[in-house]
Structure formats: C-alpha cells, structure tokens
C-alpha cells in the first residue's frame, strides 16, 4: 500500500481514515435524498412536482423533516452549488432536478443542434443488447449523452469498468432526431438506433 493511501486505493482524508470527511458525507446524503425525491419518488414524502419538475423549497424542507430527514436551506444551497454534476437548479424559492426523471415532467427545453459526436458511458455486459436495440431510455424519459469522452467514462464507471460509445449525433440530427440539452450540459434524445453508434474495437 502506498503511503498516503487508504485500503482499496482511496485517498486518505485529513484524519488518515480513508473515509470522506463528515461534511462531505452529509452533503452526499442530502444530494441522494434530493435526487430520489425530485426525480423519482416525490409522493414518498408527500410533495407534488409541478409540470416542469419544480417544487417549493419550504414545502420540500418541511416534508423531509416530517418524514425523518431534516436538513436546512443552507445545506440545500451548498449541495446545489457544490455538486460537480450540477444535478439541481434553484430559482428563487423553488428547486428542480435538471434531468434524469422517471416521473412525468416536461422540462420545457428547446430543441438544440448537437455537436457532430456525443458519447455514452456503459459497461461491457450491456453491449449485446445495445448492439441489437441501440440506446433506449429505460426507466427515464430520454437517453442521456455526454459531450466528451471523459464525462462518459465517469458515467460508465458508476456501473463497473467503463466502455465509451461514440454517437453520430450529427447524422442523427440530419435524419430528423430531436435533441435537447439540460441546464447542466447533458444531451437528451428519445433513443439512439444502433446504426448511429460506434463501438470500441474488441481487444
């Protein structure tokens, strides 16, 4: 084990434990709570998103506290500002998730012209289905695509050893497929047929 590293290669924190500092753990917990209830299960804590996915922050904080998870407006603002993926947007006294919903919302994003190529991070076990069916939104409203390989690699790494596919988004757009881009730079489209995908060469 290298000096300055924790088991499993995790960097040591300032206490030398290899665990995230308490403040970081708290922010991560709040972020996951927001994702769960602003994207997937608002009804679980008795809140209702409007047609565009917004909810009043005071209502959200009160509902969370009533269901056993109390956090402050300051903590919420910190998570929104510090989240490296910019998952949430605050507009005055309301908040919404920027994308990734499984509940029905209309983010009212205008159509956008994509770059010539976009990227999608996945793992090897999904490749046979992708080769056969292309990319589908599954339980989301749209397929999520990344603007660069680095971002797609991080997305794929959440599920295991990442595999990055290139998407001929320029050709898709010319063929009539519609794209949108979320507030945090994620490209969205209804589906990606397999003919527009470029797979990495087998090793």
TrEMBL record:
Basic and acidic residues: bias regions: 1-17
Annotated region described as Disordered, given as residue ranges: 1-25
Function: Removes the 2'-phosphate from RNA via an intermediate in which the phosphate is ADP-ribosylated by NAD followed by a presumed transesterification to release the RNA and generate ADP-ribose 1''-2''-cyclic phosphate (APPR>P). May function as an ADP-ribosylase.
Annotated InterPro entries: Ptrans_KptA/Tpt1 (IPR002745), RNA_2'-PTrans_C (IPR042081), RNA_2'-PTrans_KptA (IPR022928), RNA_2'-PTrans_N (IPR042080)
GO MF entry, a single one: tRNA 2'-phosphotransferase activity
Protein name in the entry: Probable RNA 2'-phosphotransferase
The enzyme's E.C. designation: 2.7.1.-
Alphabetical UniProt keywords: NAD, Transferase
Enzyme class of the recorded protein, top EC level: transferase
Gene: kptA
Family: Belongs to the KptA/TPT1 family.
Gene3D superfamilies referenced in this protein's UniProt entry, alphabetically: 3.20.170.30, RNA 2'-phosphotransferase, Tpt1/KptA family, N-terminal domain
GO terms under biological process: tRNA splicing, via endonucleolytic cleavage and ligation
């Amino acid at each position: 084990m290298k000096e300055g590293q924790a088991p499993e290669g995790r960097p040591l924190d300032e206490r030398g434990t290899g665990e995230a500092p308490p403040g970081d753990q708290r922010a991560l917990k709040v972020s996951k709570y927001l994702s769960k209830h602003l994207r997937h299960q608002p009804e679980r804590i008795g809140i209702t998103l409007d047609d565009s996915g917004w909810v009043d922050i005071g209502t959200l904080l009160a509902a969370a506290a009533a269901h056993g998870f109390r956090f402050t407006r300051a903590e919420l603002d910190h998570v929104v500002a510090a989240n490296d993926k910019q998952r949430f947007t605050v507009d005055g006294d309301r908040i919404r998730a920027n994308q990734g919903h499984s509940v029905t919302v209309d983010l009212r994003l205008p159509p956008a012209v994509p770059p010539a190529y976009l990227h999608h991070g996945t793992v090897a076990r999904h490749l046979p289905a992708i080769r056969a069916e292309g990319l589908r939104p599954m339980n989301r409203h749209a397929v999520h695509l990344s603007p660069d390989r680095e971002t797609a690699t991080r997305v794929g790494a959440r599920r295991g050893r990442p595999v990055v596919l290139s998407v001929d988004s320029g050709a898709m757009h010319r063929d009539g497929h519609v794209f949108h881009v979320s507030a945090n730079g994620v490209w969205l489209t209804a589906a990606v047929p397999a003919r527009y995908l470029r797979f990495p060469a087998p090793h």
